[in-house]
Specification:
2 helices; 98 residues; two-stranded antiparallel ribbon; alpha+beta
Length: 98
């Protein structure tokens, strides 16, 4: 957990740097969008996420897993419309679908 916290803290700083939006973390997955929650053009949103991703790849090169292994991340980009809302009643959660 300490290692994921260290890595995600680096990513949080990159989110702030590029004006992206951290949607959630799921296990070791870190989900970011570029076009929300404030609307921006699709080009601007894509650029935010692409710059975040490229910088994240560079930043993890200086991190080491608890066993000393080099950290590698996998990056995926998608574009298109999304819908957002709060789902659930027991533990309401904001989610994006698209």
């Amino acid at each position: 957990m300490a290692f994921l916290n260290e890595m995600f803290s680096v990513f949080d700083a990159l989110v702030a740097k590029y004006g992206a939006y951290k949607v959630e973390t799921v296990g070791d997955e870190y989900v970011v969008i570029g076009g929300g929650p404030d609307e921006s053009s699709s080009h601007e949103g894509a650029e935010k996420v692409a710059r975040f991703a490229l910088d994240a790849i560079e930043c993890v090169k200086s991190l080491r897993a608890p066993n000393g292994a080099q950290v590698q991340i996998q990056v995926g980009l998608a574009s298109g419309p999304v819908v957002a809302g709060v789902i659930g009643t027991a533990l309401p959660k904001f989610n994006l679908f698209g």
